[in-house]
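Most newcomers find our protein records easier to grasp once they have seen one. A record pairs a protein's sequence with a compact description of its fold. An example says more than a description, so a record of this kind follows:
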Amino acid sequence: MNNLFVYCEIEDGIVADVSLELLTKGRTLATTLGCKLEAVIIGENLDSIGAQVFPYGVDVLHLFDDTRLYTYTSLPHTSILVKLFEEEKPQIALMGATSIGRDLGPRVSSALFSGLTADCTSLEIGNHEEKREGKVYENLLYQIRPAFGGNIVATIINPECRPQMATVREGVMKKEILDANYSGETKKHEVASYVSDADFVVAVIDRQIEKSKVNIKGSPVIVAGGYGVGSKENFRLLYDLAGVLGAEVGGSRAAVDAGFIEHERQIGQTGVTVRPKLYIACGISGQIQHIAGMQESSIIISVNNDPNAPINTIADYVITGSIEEVLPKMIKYYKKNMK
């Protein structure tokens, strides 16, 4: 009762990174609230799941094991979460902003009349005073995300309805083991008590998954370009620099929309969230959506014609100049120093 729940996704028996990131954040929030962190896993052959999630500080693991529950289909997973949440009455429920989370989250929140904030970039606990009504709400979930086209960062709260539900994109939260020897309680539920046969009306006959050929998230060095790069041809300079540094190339949404670079390389709120050791931002103005996807980089270098570009305020080093002028020099002197 009144605990924090995280819905965890699995693929081939492995818990998804976004779910482990949410467990890490969930552990911190649960500690602040003085409640338990509980995880929900729905699928088949779940015996090895406990060893994967308990080190992240999970107090209770709810397992729903049935061959019909893997792969994901909407109706049975929705029925399970809705009934489980009605029984357990969590105060907070989190899930990844993945294709599954974007399908499942709204279904569950609608059934429970709880509301849902999508694509959060930060989650915090705090109080809220409703001055008109003279009420003070304590220990609410602050659901923080860019809004109005990225022009502001909004803090959204849900004072009355429970659970407070939010989805978070992969890479936004940090994944960190709490204690390798942490142990919690495992509850194996009877699937038939939560799902009717009618929920299995849709069956997956064949499933094909094309894995991304680009590993931006895992790259320690990223050279990213924005609309200020000017053209698809100019992006060649970024690829040349990346080739020298052993880096991946990324782009802002504006660059993707302009056709300068492919969508799978998009970094930001509507793309991939990254945390490289070095992030070189070329011709990127620094809209909130983009900054949300790279602000945790260890070192940020901004190369920009505009000395007042917003991204310069978070950059560790700023180089004022054109891409055509600066990048060839960076390549030249890097090669020179490597000899």
Q: What stands out?
A: The radius of gyration is 22 Å. Residues 17-33 form the longest helix (17 residues).
